[in-house]
Automatic annotation (TrEMBL):
PANTHER family in UniProt: GALACTOFURANOSYLTRANSFERASE GLFT2, RHAMNOSYLTRANSFERASE WBBL
Family: Belongs to the glycosyltransferase 2 family.
One Pfam family recorded for the sequence: Glycos_transf_2
Entry keywords, A to Z: Glycosyltransferase, Transferase
Residues annotated as transmembrane: none
Limits of the Glycosyltransferase 2-like domain: 22-189
Name of the featured protein: Glycosyltransferase 2-like domain-containing protein
Gene Ontology MF: a single term: glycosyltransferase activity
């Protein structure tokens, strides 16, 4: 794959391992060391069945790189760190991670996730041995997430729309697919990789799942990890701004699917209103206001997202 220059560091256990599962962890300006320590508690029991592959997508922090190399060298799990000289983006970065993967199944796991079960990796290994699924999503939770007041709105949003049990997710399997805790079989990714046309934040994983679901079964299980990296309202609003173009791309590529989504229906309804710019400003202001109840701010932020998307479609 062409792109930025890559520095590769393997720990002592890497060369001899013959893994059944490759855990793929991209990060940018985050510190994945807490996740590494948590995963490595299962290392001795897994006996080389699982490898970790980390991709620093252009952070440019030499001190962090040095510290992570030392951390990898102390792990029981075989591990590789790929450090890029420049950012390549979420889709390209994840595609690059798969090049280093040696196992037949891959687990995409975000660096700010924290597994809820002490047998998190073992559960995935057992699932592969039993069912060898094409695609499986393990789920989100807020079990271990910070409870700071500044993250209350994100907690409310995530709890309502993302932290969903497997039985409910399975009703619309392609909709509940996020690359934060996602198992993918190698042959599936060989025919359906992430679209590098997606840049910035959001929707590249959902769009990928829409394509995959046409050819393969998308399974859902309850093996959740907590999303530790909750955002403040200003940060979420910026992400929604960045994600508008990606949302429009999904609409263009998969109109028949997206038209059933509440986010699309809300955006279409708002687009017809001449007061859309005013609605967008008022919704953002209400979401940012610490004087309003959390549920009201969460509703206002959803309204703001729909108004931003309305401008893009």
């Amino acid at each position: 794959m062409s792109g930025s220059r890559a520095d590769i560091h393997d720990n002592p256990g890497w060369a001899a391992a013959r893994p059944e599962l490759s855990v793929l962890i991209p990060f940018l300006r985050d510190d994945p060391e807490p996740l590494l320590r948590r995963l490595d508690t299962e290392g001795p029991a897994l006996a080389g069945q699982v490898e970790l592959i980390l991709l620093d997508d252009g952070t440019g922090d030499a001190a962090l790189t040095a510290r992570l190399k030392a951390a990898l060298d102390a792990l029981a799990l075989p591990a590789r760190l790929v450090t890029l000289s420049a950012n390549e983006g979420r889709a390209r970065g994840r595609n690059r991670l798969t090049i280093a993967a040696r196992a037949g199944s891959w687990l995409f796991l975000d660096s700010d996730m924290k597994p809820d079960s002490p047998r998190f990796l073992q559960t995935w290994v057992d699932l592969i041995a039993r069912d060898d699924p094409a695609v499986a999503f393990g789920g989100f939770s807020l079990k271990q997430a910070p409870r700071d007041r500044r993250f209350a709105v994100h907690r409310a949003l995530s709890g309502a729309s993302e932290c969903v049990r497997a039985a409910q997710r399975a009703r619309t399997p392609e909709k509940y697919v996020y690359t934060s805790n996602l198992l993918v079989r190698r042959d599936v990714f060989a025919v359906e990789s992430f679209d590098p046309g997606f840049t910035g934040w959001g929707w590249e994983d959902v769009e990928w799942a829409m394509r995959v679901a046409r050819r393969f079964q998308v399974a859902h299980i309850d093996n959740p990890a907590t999303h530790m990296g909750l955002d403040t309202v200003p940060d979420l609003a910026r992400k929604f701004d960045q994600g508008a173009a990606n949302f429009a791309r999904v609409v263009a590529l998969h109109p028949e699917i997206v038209q059933t989504y509440p986010s699309y229906k809300a955006a279409r309804a708002l687009k017809r209103l001449p007061s859309l710019p005013l609605i967008r400003r008022l919704a953002r202001g209400a979401a940012l206001s610490p004087l309003l109840p959390t549920r009201t701010r969460a509703f206002a932020l959803r309204l703001y997202r729909a108004a931003v998307y309305a401008d893009a479609i």
